[in-house]
Amino acid sequence: MAVEMLSYIERESPLHRLSGATKLIIFLFWSTAAMLTYDTRILFVMLIGSLIIFKVSQIQLREIAFVLLFILFFLLLNNVAIYIFSPRQGVEIYGTSHELFHIWGRYNVTWEQIFYQLNVTLKYFVVIPAALLFIVTTHPSEFAASLSRIGVSYKISYAVSLAFRYIPDIQRDYKTISKAQQARGIDLSRNEKFGRRLKNAVAIIMPLIMSSLDRIETISNAMELRGFGKKKRRSWYSEKPFKKADMWAILITVVLFVAAMVITFHDGSRFYNPFK
Fold first, then answer.
1. Nearest residue to 134 (alpha-carbon basis) of 23, 10, 42, 28
2. Residue 81 dihedral angles phi and psi, to the nearest 5°
3. 196 CB contacts (<8 Å, ≥6 apart)?
């Protein structure tokens, strides 16, 4: 059976054995470091770290390929938008201008702009794989327990858990409804014109919305009957206790985070400037 998009993928890996709270803390430190720094050297090291962690997780690239392609598409749009609206951002940041060629008006291509947008791209490649790995290696119930452990309200934690559980359910319902409608003669293939395919898609979307509303009502009634929200605190069946591996992973992450921040801000700027 094909793996559902953004659903938990069970493997026997060191990353899966870490508690959800540990992975959440590591991800928060990792993403904060990537967002704060524009030091290309640090971003390259973090990129290598992301690739190593991905290898250790035993997650196959094809299992998250669709999401990665979707994100890469928006990365391309982001880079195009940066250049359209601020073609000299790199020049302003690094204080020099090494022009490669002129296009038109204020639009020219400089090494500074290329270098700046390279750093922006590296940030995506550093954070996105880590975020995807956190999602697909952490069970939704354990994810909720990890949020609760770091102080998030258990109501919010449970809502997040339900959302992640619901994503695979929606995908399965979509496939089921799609096959049922195609069996009734509704063509969604490329043989039909785009406008006709769009109209036929409504025959899937409406039943999908109705089934989703029915599921929401069922879950809400079940939670209410079980007294959800009556107490200020609750226990978690899927919560994992901290082990030595968790403590070492958090310690190493904190040390690397501090080192990255020291290197980034040692000269008073978070931008590494090779043009000086």
1. 23
2. -65, -40
3. 187
pLDDT for 185 equals 72
**Integer CA distances (angstroms), 92 to 40, 112, 139, 215, in order:** 17, 9, 45, 53
Indicate the helix (H) or strand (E) that contains 103.
strand 99-104
DSSP H stretches of helix in the chain: 14-17, 20-36, 40-57, 65-85, 89-94, 111-136, 140-149, 154-183, 194-225, 244-265
Query: Residue 1's pLDDT is what?
Result: 40
Q: CA–CA distance from 106 to each of 7, 83, 256 (Å)?
A: 46, 11, 40
pLDDT value of residue 236: 67
Q: For residue 232, which phi and psi values (nearest 5 degrees)?
A: -80, -25
pTM, two decimal places: 0.73
Q: How long is the chain?
A: 276
Q: Which residues of the chain have pLDDT under 50?
A: 1-2
Q: What one-letter code names the amino acid at 35? A: M
177-194 residue pLDDT tens: 777 777 777 766 666 676
Residue position matching structure tokens 């409406």: 206
**Gap between the Cα atoms of 90 and 109, Å rounded:** 10
Q: What is the pLDDT of residue 32?
A: 92
pLDDT at 143: 75
Tokens 């958090």 appear where?
Answer: 250
In this structure, are residues 115 and 127 in contact, taking their beta carbons and an 8 Å threshold?
no
